[in-house]
Amino acid sequence: MKTFARNTLALGISLALVSAANAADFADMDPVTLRLAHVVNEQDGFHIAATKFEELVEARTDGKVNIEIYPNASLGDERTLLEGMQIGTVDMGVITNGPVANFVEEMAVFELPFLFPSPEAAYAVLDGPIGQELLDKLAEVNLKGLAYAERGFRNLTNSERAVNSPEDLDGLRIRVMENPVYTDTFRELGANAIPMAWTEALTAMQQGTIDGQENPVNVIHSFKLDETQNYMTLSRHTYAPAIFVMGMPVWSQLPEQAQTVLKEAAQEAAEHERQMNADMEADQLAALREAGMEINETPDMEAFQAAVAPVYEKYGEQFGDYLPRIREALNQ
Question: Distance between CA atoms of 83 and 76, rounded to whole angstroms?
Fold first, then answer.
């Protein structure tokens, strides 16, 4: 116990010294405010990641880098935010991987259906050389990728009927992200896939112009989709990363020590959000059940996986060597 106490004290002193050293690095820096935007609400994992990032950055720069968070799509939808970052009208954001892949198409390789068997498998690839290589490619489109937070494993909800196999999706109007991999995945599953921004999807569900959508449990819970969606299927059909991303115009103006803090803080905030999502999922599922949502935890996964084989045939080669490299990494 004494050894533990000494080690804990030593760690505390070490962290304090690091913090003091970081603060000293910024003594001569002019203060800067960065606007960080996302499209979801304050109960969502993106906001958890953003607030952790804000806390870490402001502490480590002694307040010289201030983060202002704009939730709820107050600065625009995700494509609008990314375009704003490219020209410098938005500084940074936490953005779902799907829209990012419209700017660097290789990013969509992560969202091939049933690619990752577990969150841990996804983290190993994203935080390793393959993930970093793809973050670096964002520089080619005037963006700077900092780290991978997560949207998480996506699940199907709808207002019409229980779904256990692809046959049950026949004719259902399902909102998907504006990304061709998602669109083709759900078309192969038999749905009428409708690409749509998230802000529009919420209204469409309320009005009944679409029957369902697909998102992780934390989104389904935080947006109270049980109010419009009666059925959930834990299909876990795709693992969706999210990206802490900045515009190159603002990134290139920051001193190197600030860039280092931002990148390290983004990684730590991402890992914090991942853990929070895992911790909260069981409670969120229980709350959705209590609210009246019928949840199928054991759908026919083999039937779903077989149905999406054409997606791999269509897109496999499009991502260059990334798919075989990811598969190799997963098999290690």
Answer: 10
